[in-house]
Design a protein that fits this description.
globular, Beta-lactamase, 3 domains, four-stranded antiparallel β-sheet, single chain, 15 strands, about 35% helix, Immunoglobulin-like
Length: about 450
C-alpha cells in the first residue's frame, strides 16, 4: 500500500508539471484593463520614453538635441546619408502605413503611371470595417497614377494591395508575392539591415517590421522620384468615374504638417507619410527642405499628435545646428583621384572640423575604379559621396572589395541575430516543457525502482 501511495504522488506531480497552466500564472487568461488603466499605462510609457537618452547627445562636441516621446527616431540628410539625430535608430518596430513609401518606390521604379490596376477579390476581402480604404470593388480599374494618389494621400489599404498585385504580375513576371519579394530586395539594396516586409500596406503582422534608420533610407530614395514629389504636392485629389461606378472619389492628404491652415503646419515640410496601428502606435515620416538641406525625419512608436511636435523639434534642431561642408578641397587622401560629384559634402555642427573625421572607402562595383567614401565622427555617419580611386587606392581595395548596389549612404552593418522577431515567441516555454518532461520520466523511473526494491524486501521478510 505504501508503495502505491508513493506511485500516486509521483503521477500527480507529473500531471501538474505537464499542465503548466495550473502552475504558471502567466498562462492564465489575462484580465482586461479598464480605459483608465490603459490611459495611465500609456502616460507612464510616454514619460519613460521621453527621458530615454538620445544616442547622438552622447557624442562629445555634438550639439544637444531635443528629448522626444517616440521610442525610435532619426533625422537623415537625404543626399549624403548623414545621420544627424538618432534615438534607438536600429530598434525594430512595426511600421504601419509608412510601409506605403516602399510600396510606392517599387511601383514607380518598375511600372508606368499609365498602367492599369485591376482590383481582384483578394485585394478587397481582407479589409476590416475600420481599415483605411476608398471603397474599391472587385473588377474595378484605375490607372497607376490614380492608385498611387490613393495609396499616399488616403492611405488606402486595398489600393496598396492591388498595386502590388498588378505590378507584380504585369511588370515583375509573377504575382503579389513577387512584388513583396522585390520590396525586401530593394530595401536591402538601399542599405536596410533590420527590416522585413510581408505586405504592401502595413497592416499588422509580427513578421513585418523596420527601424527608424531603415525608413530614413527608404524615404531618401523615394524622395528622388519625381512622381512621388508631384503626388506629395497635392493636398486633395479626385478620382473620376470608373468602369464600375459613376461616383467620384475625393480624398485629402493626411499629413498635418503639409496643410497651411493646420496647427501642426511646418513651412519646410515637402512630403511624408502617416501610419497607425494598435501595435505600431503612431508612425510618421516627414521630408523637409529649408533651401539648404533636404532632410528625412522618422519617428516610430510615438503617441498621436506628439509625432508632429517631436518631428518639428528634431527638424528645427538640425536646421539650426548643422551645415554642409564640401569635401572636394579638404580631402588629401592619395587613394582618391577625384570626386564623382564635385559638390559632395559632409554635414557637421559648429566646432567639429573635417580633420576630426574618419573615413571608409569601398569599391561600388559599377566601374573599374569607382568607389564610395563614407565619413564618420566618433562612429556617427556624417555623409558619403562617390569617388574615382587612384590606381594605388584601387590596388589597396581590390582584394577586399565590398560591392554595394547604389549610392545611398548611411547604412549600419550590424549583427541582427539578437532580438530577431522571427524566433518563436514561446521558444523558452518549449525548452521548459522538454526539461520538465525529462524530469517526469526520471521521477517515474525512480518510483519504479523504489517499488521494486520494497517488493524485494517484502519477499525477503516473508
Amino acid at each position: 500500500m505504501r508503495g502505491k501511495r508513493i506511485l500516486f504522488f509521483i503521477m500527480a506531480a507529473a500531471v501538474l508539471i505537464l499542465h503548466p497552466a495550473a502552475v504558471y500564472a502567466e498562462d492564465a487568461e489575462p484580465q482586461e484593463k479598464t480605459e483608465e488603466e490603459l490611459a495611465a499605462q500609456e502616460e507612464k510609457e510616454k514619460a519613460d520614453s521621453y527621458v530615454t537618452d538620445v544616442d547622438t547627445n552622447k557624442l562629445a562636441g555634438w550639439p544637444q538635441g531635443p528629448q522626444v516621446y517616440a521610442d525610435s527616431a532619426v533625422v537623415m540628410d537625404m543626399e549624403s546619408g548623414a545621420v544627424l539625430f538618432e534615438k534607438n535608430g536600429d530598434k525594430q518596430h512595426c511600421p504601419a502605413s509608412i510601409t506605403k513609401l516602399l510600396t510606392t518606390l517599387v511601383a514607380v521604379e518598375n511600372a508606368e503611371l499609365t498602367d492599369k490596376v485591376k482590383f481582384t477579390e483578394d485585394s478587397i476581402s481582407f479589409l476590416q470595417y475600420d481599415d483605411a480604404q476608398i471603397g474599391m470593388q472587385a473588377g474595378e480599374e484605375l490607372n497607376l497614377d490614380d492608385a498611387l494618389h490613393a495609396v499616399l494621400l488616403a492611405s488606402a489599404n486595398e489600393v496598396s494591395h492591388a498595386v502590388a498585385e498588378n505590378v507584380g504580375a504585369q511588370r515583375l513576371g509573377g504575382n503579389y508575392d513577387t512584388f513583396i519579394q522585390k520590396m525586401n530586395e530593394r530595401a536591402t539594396e538601399l542599405g536596410c539591415t533590420n527590416s522585413h516586409w510581408v505586405n504592401a500596406n502595413g497592416l499588422h503582422d509580427d513578421q513585418h517590421y523596420t527601424t527608424a534608420h531603415d525608413m530614413a533610407l527608404i524615404a531618401s530614395a523615394v524622395y528622388q522620384q519625381e512622381e512621388f514629389r508631384k503626388i506629395m504636392g497635392t493636398l486633395e485629389y479626385k478620382i473620376g468615374p470608373t468602369n464600375l461606378t459613376k461616383e467620384e472619389r475625393i480624398f485629402q492628404q493626411n499629413h498635418k504638417m503639409l496643410w497651411p491652415e493646420n496647427y501642426y503646419y511646418y513651412k519646410y515640410c515637402t512630403g511624408g507619410k502617416t501610419g497607425y496601428t494598435d501595435q505600431a502606435k503612431t508612425t510618421l515620416v516627414t521630408m523637409a527642405d529649408n533651401g539648404k538641406m533636404h532632410l528625412a525625419a522618422v519617428v516610430l512608436y510615438d503617441y498621436g499628435v506628439d509625432a508632429y511636435t517631436d518631428t518639428k523639434a528634431m527638424l528645427d534642431y538640425v536646421f539650426d545646428n548643422f551645415e554642409k561642408v564640401p569635401v572636394k578641397d579638404k580631402e588629401t587622401s592619395g587613394d582618391i583621384g577625384h570626386f564623382s560629384d564635385p559638390e559632395g559634402y559632409v554635414v557637421l555642427p559648429e566646432g567639429i572640423d573635417f580633420s576630426q573625421l574618419e573615413k571608409n572607402i569601398i569599391l561600388t562595383g559599377d566601374g573599374i575604379r569607382n568607389g564610395k567614401v563614407t565619413y564618420t565622427y566618433k562612429g556617427q555617419n556624417v555623409g558619403s559621396t562617390a569617388v574615382i580611386l587612384t590606381e594605388e587606392g584601387y590596388g589597396k581595395l581590390a582584394g577586399k572589395a565590398v560591392v554595394v548596389k547604389n549610392e545611398n549612404a548611411g547604412s549600419k552593418q550590424e549583427d541582427t541575430s539578437k532580438d530577431n522577431p522571427t524566433e518563436p515567441a514561446d521558444s523558452g516555454k518549449s525548452k521548459l516543457y522538454i526539461a520538465t518532461g525529462a524530469a517526469v520520466i526520471f521521477l517515474i523511473l525512480l518510483g519504479t525502482v523504489l517499488l521494486y526494491s520494497r517488493k524485494k524486501k517484502g519477499q525477503h521478510r516473508r
